[in-house]
Task: structure prediction
Amino acid sequence: MKILVTGGAGFIGSAFIRNNSTAHILNFDKLTYAGNLENLLPIASNPRYRFLRGDICDAAAVDAAFEDFQPDAVVHFAAESHVDRSIHSPAPVIQTNFNGTFTMLEAARKHKTERFVHVSTDEVYGSIPEPLDADESYPLRTSSPYSASKAGSDLLALSYFTTYKMNISVTRASNNYGPYQFPEKLIPLMIANALENKSLPIYGDGMQIRDWLYVDDHCSAIQSVLEKGQAGEVYNIGGSRALPNIEVVKKILAATGRTEALLSYVTDRPGHDRRYAITTAKLEAATGWKATMDFEQGLTATVDWYKANQPWVDRVRSGEYQDFYQQNYGAR
Ligand code: NAD
Ligand code: DAU
Result:
């Protein structure tokens, strides 16, 4: 099988590529601040793998990639993925997440690509009141430019199934964690800061709830959907481990041998969703997939990876990331 992967230099896309041992893969990625080819060093010289730098909003470049590679399937990860960035600067988020998805769908339509998996997020459901777990029919109630752009792109992808009968499935995953995650998201930021004895910024009261999914479990779920998912269907992917942020951060303090003196409660994120919780029953019934990583084990493995890869963190944390860090946290 030939798979065109978009956003394959990012956190989840690179794990998907590293974990795939059979397909021929073209990684189409713009290399924004979040794209890092170091994440792909384990597969860089494999003849099954090719990298092409390009923007999913550039229709001519996308068309040329389809023409040349002739993919059997597209797995579409590329996105501006960080909620805080989408609040500070929504334009690139709307451009890449909505218009970029449109470009990818048009190219797949033109080239009659057999299969398309659109990778989305449980954030499209917005905050879920206790004690509900959202299933795939839950209304879309987005709070941030990021989640709105993802909800829009989900609906666009599904419209290509309804209108053009394309073989498209949409996945909606919960919060991922694991090695190679850019240290702007909660878990890698807290690990990196703790290891450097920097303060750990907790938004608001820290009682917001997220459901944690180990990145390799997310990737195996996407592979299952690619192979066994039905056209026009949406599949939630969750880790079934919902925890308040402050509990997660305290586990990180314990795993890094640091104390609560590093905790710093800061102004809350605007429009902050209080609770994400989803059910993955549909995916499990349709494909047999189940998350396998226990959260405590996954967190230990992740902390160990960041400890062992401090040079990776140092390189990632230089330059543009520093500017963003100052912009987001400087006034808090
Ligand atoms: P990431 O930010 O780590 O990586 C995004 C990748 O997309 C980068 O390599 C970047 O260079 C590339 N990219 C961005 N704009 C592009 C463009 N215009 N053209 C081509 N490439 C571009 O993101 P991630 O955390 O790996 O997330 C991947 C996907 O999974 C996203 O669609 C995201 O919405 C979704 N998702 C993420 C999570 C999570 O917890 N991280 C959870 C659920 C769903
Ligand atoms: O739910 C899936 C989504 O999870 C994905 O679609 C997004 O791409 C991904 O970024 C993530 O979104 P969140 O906003 O939930 O993730 P983030 O890591 O930014 O924040 C997790 C929680 O931690 C959230 O309640 C905000 C809080 N937080 C985050 C940061 C970065 C803090 O308290 N302090 C921080 O410094």
About this structure: The mean pLDDT is 96. Residues 90-110 form the longest helix (21 residues).
